[in-house]
Every structure is written in C-alpha cells, then in structure tokens.
Amino acid sequence: QVQLVESGGGLVQPGGSLRLSCAASGFTFSRYPMAWYRQAPGKEREWVATITTSSDFTHYADSVKGRFTISRDNAKNTVYLQMNSLKPEDTAVYYCNGVPSPAPAYWGRGTQVTVSS
Q: What is the share, in percent, of the chain residues with pLDDT greater than 90?
C-alpha cells in the first residue's frame, strides 16, 4: 500500500533553515511528479512546491519562491524540501504527495515546522 513518511521538521528561529524529507513506498515513485504542501493552524492545506519526475522542472508558491528548494532522489524514493530564511508564517505541518496522488484521499502524518524566537 502507498506510504508517505515525512520527517525533518522541528523548532527553528526566524531566518533559520530546515531540510524536510519524504520517504515514499507502495507505488512507482519515479513515475510521479511530487509535491510538498503545508497546513497552518486553522487554515486550509496549501500547495508549496512541485518537482517533475526527472527533476527537470520545479515550481513554487510565490510565498516560498527564492527561499525553498524541492529536490528528489529516485534511487531512494525520497523527495526533499530545503527551507531557508524561514519566517513565522512558514509554521505549519508539511506533507508530501504524488501529483496526482497515487492513493486518492491518502496523506501521510506530515512533519511539524515551527518558526519562532
């Protein structure tokens, strides 16, 4: 069955950095574009970034452009999100998923990112 396991979150001060990882299994990872999403308290889940199957194209939400970098390693079935210059408004639970999702309505547990001094 499809599994997405996000990790790497934590508490960081404004201006700091974190690198998130998402280990995928149960589907052919290399055939799916992958994306990161986030959900802040009391808000809808929002899209953050997408990467194509061979990493030739990436796309970012305006709110993270220039600060976040999405990447993937198809040999490890893992997608990453490098987050630099973090702001308090980046505080959220971060999730990854395939595009489209390989298992409709399935989401992993996510990883909590808290940006606070």
A: 98
